[in-house]
Amino acid sequence: MSRGTSATPLGRVRGLGSAHHGGEHWLSERVTSIALLLLGTWLMASLVYGADGILSGLGSVAAPLLVELHAAVAAGDLVAARAVNDRLVPLCRAFYRAPSLDAHNRMKTALHLLGRLPHPDPRAPLLPPDADERARIRAALVDAGLLAS
Q1: Which of 15, 16, 18, 124 is an S-S bond match for 25, by CB 3.0 to 4.6 Å?
Q2: pTM for the full predicted model
Q3: 29 within domain boundaries
Q4: Residue 105 lies inside a defined structural domain of this protein
């Protein structure tokens, strides 16, 4: 009997969905989901807790927002800090989603869309974001107020 055609329950589902990727795929999706949840708040939370500054890859795209976030927290203006943080969330979701290996490629695409980088495509073997991914990145930049719609 060929693989996947077994009459057993395992044989009937083998190769379907994430089952054929193994446990690593399932775990990667869960870790990425948790990371996205935390990335939306960890910068602000770190500053409120007393961090002296921010060191983030996001700074290459949204440095003014990070400076604004830091200044608001330093001034004790948590309402303003929350408003800036809310603008950072779409960027975190666009850049740090699975697969996380592509985060830097997504940031390079954002820099290109902002007119700061002439050629966003990564070197082989990495692939540039596809049209749907570019649209998500563009929408995040617009939502963050960094790019006109």
Answers
A1: 18
A2: 0.70
A3: yes
A4: yes
